[in-house]
Amino acid sequence: MGPDKHCRKQVEQIVSKMPYYYYVHRGGNDAYHRIGFRKPPDVVLWLIIVNFIVYLIEAIDPNRIIMLFGLVPPMITQKLYLWQFFTYMFLHGSFLHIFFNMFSLYIFGHDLFIKWGAKRFLSYYFITGIGAGLCAYLFTNVPTIGASGAVYGLLLAYGVTFPNRLLLLYFFIPIRAKYLVVIFGLLEFFATLGGTSDGIAHIAHLGGMVFGAMMLLFYHLGGKMKKISPTNPFDDFTILHPQEPEDIDKILDKILHQGVESLTPKERAILAKAGKFISQHPAYRKRSHRR
After folding, report:
1. Which CATH architecture is the domain 42-221 placed in?
2. Among the ranges 124-128, 195-199, 259-263, 270-274, which has the highest mean pLDDT value?
3. In the chain, what are the domain boundaries?
4. pTM for this one?
């Protein structure tokens, strides 16, 4: 492998570590034509797989399965079906319901898992989910299913941990994570106060965020979480401007066709900044140590 190809491979590896919303260059002629998605970590992947398997099983006899494993307040009160506080998270009412929950789990869970590790991530996910179910049990009397409560807890944690990350609301509206948390939190709060009858468990969503806030406070007071700083490259991707991946792709093409020596000082600085970012990221350091 020549030096140009080696340099291109290194920087492509840097770009591949960027959040899912960054454009990835494929092909020539400045064709920035698709968004790259990363493979979720094993724990997040298994949660997604289990949810889809349960969804297929649920289709066999949905009413019976929901009565046994959904969160049904009368069944918990009268027959002590306490396992429903846990199992209801794996049931979903429709394909769109499970798709958006699992997509959100992938988006928020990927980076939280890398930062926290499996033990803390799973404990946070299930405690916020169970807490959301407890709120639904205390304040409603209708069956509740879905992982939405836990997902809203993850949304809160993501917004606190990575406040300046750009997310794509409804797949095309760019918005900072911290603003997304505020918007969705207020929507669920007012929907809960208004008592809307849209079939959505708003109180469970809000409960997931409340229990998530308590968990984050517990981690912080217990010294298990570093204080979040938006300018800390270990906690956020603010070291790179969202438009810079496109610049990197153009620089890669220039290296490929004209060689490394053709780069201007500004272009070299962009590559140096990208290299500094990935070398400081915890996930990169762990892989380097394993090697």
Report:
1. Up-down Bundle (1.20)
2. 124-128
3. 3-18+242-290, 42-221
4. 0.66
